[in-house]
Amino acid sequence: MMTGQRVVSVNPAAKSVTTKGGEIIEYDKLVWSTGGSPRTLRVGVMDGDRVEARNLCRHILSIEDVGHFKAIALARRLSTAMPDADIKPIRTNFPPIEDSSRIVVQGFDVIVDCTGSDVVLDDLAAYPWNEEKIFISLGMTWAAEGLVAFAAPESIFPSLDARSFFAEVAPHRPDEEMPMEGLGRWHPVFPARANDTMFWASQGVSFIQQAILERSRKRVHYRRTAGGGVERNDY
Fold first, then answer.
1. What's this model's pTM, rounded to 2 decimal places?
2. Is the dihedral of CA 183, 186, 190, 196 positive or negative?
3. What is the pLDDT along the chain (235 residues), one digit of tens a residue?
4. Quick one: three-class SS letters along the chain?
5. CA torsion, points 11, 17, 19, 24, in degrees to nearest 10?
């Protein structure tokens, strides 16, 4: 084995390579490797709350995670599914206050919001990002009938645009229609099952991939059809 030798030319007909020092080396088979190091996917999971039993219908978490911090439990679970990714829990709610958390958040290129909170959307808009990010906000509609998805490559999150879009296609139900007991999503009695959440989570991942590749503002409302398919409406 020869190391530290730079090849300056290849002669496929003669099956030989010439090094910078002028040495000609013959070969039977040539593997052309450009070198480099693998790029690790970095993911941060931000949440300052603990897992409650009523959260389980919308999570991949289990009863064993109840009482633990959501960020830690979810990062641990995702790490088992993506062992080649660097997944770190950020045990605080947005916006981060501590400098260490702010530095970590600032380092991400893609910011994904799944809170369903107008307050968080406004906080995203007010946060000093100082450079362009790909902002994505996802949320299920009532009874998991659909998914609303918003994306924008901007240096400031366009909260007003996102909020007006969500209000148009997925208006909130009146409070009197939201009893406060049991397990749930919008409220503790969310009329949907865990498989509904997983169904739209998969659709959400596809939207995130498209938003990253195309880097354009998107407003999409997905709805499940009677036959079990998905209808997409772009706004």
1. 0.76
2. negative
3. 677 777 878 888 888 888 878 889 988 888 877 666 666 789 999 999 999 887 777 677 888 999 999 999 999 998 988 888 899 999 999 999 999 999 999 999 999 999 888 999 999 999 999 899 999 999 988 778 899 999 999 999 999 999 999 999 886 655 555 554 444 444 444 667 778 888 999 999 999 999 999 999 999 999 999 888 899 999 9
4. CCCCCCEEEEECCCCEEEECCCCEEECCCCCCCCCCCCCCCEEEEECCCECCHHHHHHCCCCHHHCCCEHHHHHHHHHHHHCCCCEEEEECCCCCCCCHHHHHHHHCCCEEEECCCCHHHHHHHHHCCCCCCEEEEEEEECHHHCEEEEEEEEECCCCHHHHHHHHHHHCCCCCHHHCCCCCCCCCCCCCCCCHHHHHHHHHHHHHHHHHHHHHCCCEEEEEEECCCCCEEEEEC
5. -100
Residue type, 122: D
Structure-block tokens of residue 200: 């739209």
**Pair of tokens at residue 10:** 């290849």
Write phi, then psi, for 86 (nearest 5 degrees).
Answer: -100, 100
Residues in the chain: 235
Interacting residues of 126 by C-beta distance below 8 A, sequence separation 6+: 95
